[in-house]
Amino acid sequence: MSDPLQIKRLLRRPQFLAAAKGVSEARGGVVIQRLERGDGSSHVGMGFTATRKIGGAVQRNRAKRRLRQAARALLPDHGVPGSDYVFIARMGTTERAWDRLLDDVKSTLTRLARPKADTPSPARAPSGQDRQNP
Fold this sequence. Notes:
Blueprint: E1 7-9, H1 13-20, E2 23-27, E3 30-36, E4 44-49, H2 57-78, E5 83-89, H3 98-113
Parallel strand pairs: 1-4, 4-5
Antiparallel strand pairs: 2-3, 3-5
Helix pairs in contact: 2-3
């Protein structure tokens, strides 16, 4: 049986800024940023934030509490050891049904755990260049 994943909180601003330089995914009521630390430690870091766009302090705190509970439930199963995650509340986080919020967090964590394909996307013409002038 494998050891449970050790989870630590991100508390300092530089940790949040570093995670912002990693990959991110957005789904429904949440944006999650992931940074692979590469420091040899297998613990997972998690941090939570909500901007003033969400609402007043009561709304922001409620959104962060909901994200904390979702992360506690899902991060041990879907988190990648040696990574830091920052959960960012979006406008609908506080009103979103709990099951839908859990689904958003789970699908985002699953998506972030998979490495990006190394195949380049097909080249697109710059905006406005793909139309022919009559």
